Amino acid sequence: MSHPIHLFWTSGWDSTYRLLYLTFVCKQTVQPIYIVENKGRASVNVEMQTMDFIYQEIKKKDPETAKLIRPTIYKQLTEIQIDDEISDAYERITKKLSLGGQYVYLASYAKNSDFNNIELCIERLCISRQDSIFELLSPLTVEFKKRGFKNYRMSEINQDKPAYKIFGRFDFPLIFQTKSEMRDKAKGYGFIDILKDTWFCHSPLPGNIPCGVCPPCCYAIEDGFTWRFPEESLKRYKKSIKRRIYFTLKKQPLIFWCLRHVKGFLQGKKSVVD
């Protein structure tokens, strides 16, 4: 039996699509990994509940397919030793491009665990917005075959680049697909009903209602997924001043970088992921 494919799973659209594709279509064994970020992420409990719910739905739909999913590895963020080389590379990149701090601890986890080829589900940007992570990685990736199926990873000729220090251990199976393309393919594969049960909001309102203003909510709305939101969430999106400030600053990476460090200094933080 071949080794399982390691996949960072969050209960979100992209990683859940990949989980379903690998098991239902490719018939591959998958080892999901979830980093438990209790301190700074209000959605952790919802995400873990959603992952369990999705697994149960897979089991109802096809018990044999469910057997291909190994029990999720839960790793506490506080247990991850942040790698200095990765952290330094992140600092260099974020002076020019906006980049989520989660990539530092994901990369540190992979390096500390000596894992290579963990799948990280970064999708292709839609026309309506710019996405720094896609802009950073897409020119540096090469196509390869993984278990006979198309996949992507960073080319080794980029080993001297800061991006390679962070992303060199990952595979990017969805980097040239949009969420809408995944939706259309999921319909054809027959698991769109399960994919609709995914979660995305980082700051849910009481009753597990999407907030409409956190970055994942904004991206989903701007990608044309308004059907996933109640009217309350859409109204919050339209009226949010915080959203406008955040995305305006994101277009100015150096200012964004400086503000992040000022905030960290005031709070006595040393790590980019605190």
Description:
The protein has 274 residues and is of the alpha/beta class. It has 13 helices and 7 strands. The chain has helices spanning 13-25, 44-61, 63-66, 84-93, 102-112, 132-137, 162-167, 179-189, 192-195, 215-222, 231-239, 241-250, 253-266; strands at 5-8, 30-36, 73-76, 118-119, 141-146, 149-154, 170-171. A hairpin with a 2-residue loop joins strand 5 (141-146) and strand 6 (149-154). It starts with a strand and ends in an 8-residue tail after the last helix. Mean pLDDT is 89; it is low at 270-274.
| Main beta-sheet annotation | 3 strands, parallel
Strand content: 5-15%
Number of strands: 7
Helix percentage: 40-55%
Integer-rounded radius of gyration:
18 Å
Mean pLDDT: 89
Shape estimate: globular
Distance separating the two termini: 40 Å
Summed up:
The chain has 274 residues and is an alpha/beta fold.
